[in-house]
Amino acid sequence: MLEYLRGSEHLRSLETLKRQTKNLLAFFKGREVNGLTGQDIKAYCRQRKDQGRANATINRELAALSSAINHCNREWEWDLPNPVKGRMLREPHHRERYLTRAEAGRLIAVARQQRSGDILADFIEVAVYTGCRRGELLNLDWARVDLTRGVESITLNARHTKSGKPRVVPLNANAASAIKRRATWRAENAPQSPWVFARPGGGQVKSLRSGFEKASKSAGLEDLRIHDLRHTAASWLVTDGVPLEVVKELLGHSSITMTERYAHLAPHRVREAVNRLGHNPVTPENLVRRDNVLEFGKS
């Protein structure tokens, strides 16, 4: 597994991969890969469920193990059995969880009350008002922030976007205010830090999950993940009437199919389309009589 990680250092998702394999390495410590069985995989799943992890999270971890085994077989011509095969857990189809504006406000307020909660609260606010992914924000440095009045924006490095393409994300007043609070904190606490979301010593924040889970629980919000902040942004945009094509560009989706999962939140778009059909209705006055039409080829 460690060799697989070292060979994956070019991946944009390396930090995610390291996080996914951390629990695998702890659970299977001292075991040889060729000795792992299906029962071992089931035992791992039981432990992670007991720890409160969702099936989707466990599946991502199992997928990392499966990829490592396949890597060994492909690159080094080993013949390892893959105990993960056929043992992925069932996931709810298209899990959709997003916050109302009142819930988001409550979450931000509760987060800010926690110890060192300002950074978490500002992160939540920027995520909700930009739709950026967790990794895109935690890897954001000040060189890619423009707080010029009227054109406030952040530029996401291609290395940190899921599509592998750079993306400019405009900042509304809420997101810009949160970024400015980070700038004030930086000036007072870590002026040399390049990171927008930095630790007290100026180092990069790698994870906010534990603080986020604590804030969610305190705010009375069940089954909430950091990625749901992105779903929240998309949902608000669609319900406010923003065209799906614009939402696609803002979120950096590689295809409109990914954005269409939110289409059901905008039934008014269907109503508007039907109403447009009646914009110029057929009436006796605009009908064209057939006997007045000269058909091609006839005289």
From TrEMBL:
Domain Tyr recombinase: start-end pairs: 94-275
Record InterPro entries: CB, DNA_brk_join_enz, Int_N, Integrase-like_cat_sf, Integrase_catalytic, Integrase_recombinase_N, Tyrosine_recombinase_XerCD
Residue intervals of the Core-binding (CB) domain: 1-73
Single Gene Ontology MF annotation: DNA binding
Highest rank taxon of the organism: Bacteria
An individual GO BP term: DNA recombination
Pfam family, one: Phage_integrase
Keywords for this protein: DNA integration, DNA recombination, DNA-binding
Family affiliation: Belongs to the 'phage' integrase family.
Protein name: Tyrosine-type recombinase/integrase
Organism, scientific name: Halomonas sp. RT37
